[in-house]
Amino acid sequence: MSQNCLFCKIVAGEIPATIVFKDEHVTAFRDISPAAPTHILVIPNRHIDSLHAATETDQSLLGHILLTARKIAEKEELEASGYRVVLNTGSDGGQTVFHIHAHVLGGRRLSWPPG
Ligand code: AMP
Ligand code: ZN
Asked: What lines the ligand 1 site, CB under 6 Å?
């Protein structure tokens, strides 16, 4: 666990969150400030700063994050309408919490390109 990392604290159960899925590798919970009817974050239980801090050794974990996002979309019944999975990376990418997380967004028509 990384000291003072908000998402590590959610994994450890030290900060409350609405957890929708958890296994030995990842945790998924509802975003505290939802940008869409479904807005869930999927994070690895082990701390990695960002996509850019990931390495070859994280390959299967990154795949697991994506497949968990897919599973959550299914649970939220988004497969027919579609959904978006986003990894904001670094400051221009809009990353504010430096523990890698995939946003799963759906339940409304999302615009493109993003702002
Ligand atoms: P990003 O801007 O990509 O780093 O996304 C960070 C996300 O974490 C934002 O959408 C926040 O609303 C969300 N967030 C921040 N604090 C919490 C929290 N305590 N529980 C759930 N989501 C959070
Ligand atoms: Zn962390």
From this structure: 6, 15, 17, 29, 31-33, 41, 88, 94-97
